[in-house]
Amino acid sequence: MISPRTARLVASLHKWLGLIVAIQFVVWTGTGLFMASFHLADVRGEHLVHPPGHMAPIDMSKVRLTSADALRAVVEDRPNEVILRPLAGQPVYEVRAGIGVFLVSAETGSVLSPVSGELASEIAAAAWAAGGEPLSIERIEPAPRESGLSGAVWAAHFAGEGNPTLYVSAANGQVSAPRTDLWRTYDFFYGLHLMDYVNHESANNIWNIALAFFALSTVLFGIVLLVHRFTRSGGRRREPA
């Protein structure tokens, strides 16, 4: 049996740690309830963009240059990869090398990277399922975390509920998943749920570890107090009537 002074200290620690853990339990419950209230497809805005296989096949009649011509256009003789792919309705060569990524028109031979605002607008419009041009487009560097891209990007803002935005990489024309106010709110609550307040993507962080330690300590302190109460009650003798 522990001393009364130690028991009071354990009781105080149990109370304050329990309060900290309880607050996070409320956060977990609230954020979990919010996230469970929406279909993930709606959060991701999958209905706002065309599916990956939507793009028309490359019109080979427009391909007038070879991959070797594309390499000469960017003065790169040791590429990692050269890919012929469609981009906003036109065939392009994507040259990936150690010094960066280059886009070369397979029709005219002009170097398209870094992607211009006009081309980025065409790329975003081609990906947008509702049709129509972006309301506005702006260049952002470095790319915001929500874009999932790196380097410089073009942010194409469209009309619609939730301020929908598509990000287009200025390096290779890659288009991000659509981002809306619902996605941003969901992402914020997801970060609170994981206790990852910066990247909103990993539960393996110091805050989760600390809370797990606090929760375990609260339980252990509670067991100590329970044992102390039982042993103290069991040690008392009943007074004669």
3D architecture notes:
- There is one protein chain.
- With 241 residues, the protein is α+β, with helices and mostly antiparallel strands.
- The protein folds into two domains: 8-40 and 186-235, no CATH class; 53-176, no CATH class.
- The protein contains six helices and six strands, in the order αααβββαβββαα.
- It has helices at 4-36, 40-44, 67-74, 117-127, 181-194, 206-235; strands spanning 81-87, 90-97, 100-105, 136-140, 153-157, 165-169.
- Helix 1 (4-36) runs antiparallel to helix 5 (181-194) and helix 1 (4-36) crosses helix 6.
- The longest helix has 33 residues, at 4-36.
Précis, in short:
By secondary structure, the chain is α+β, with helices and mostly antiparallel strands. Helix content is 42%, strand content 15%.
The radius of gyration computed from the alpha-carbon positions, rounded to a whole number of angstroms, is: 29 Å
| Largest sheet descriptor | 3 strands, antiparallel
| Average predicted local confidence, pLDDT | 90
Spatially, the strands of the biggest sheet line up as 1-2-3
- Beta-sheet strand percentage? 5-15%
Report the principal-axis shape: elongated
> Helical amount among residues, as a percent range?
40-55%
Please report the total strand number as a whole number.
6
Distance between the termini: 28 Å
Q: How many independent structural domains?
A: 2
- SS content category: alpha+beta
Give the low-pLDDT segments. Answer: none
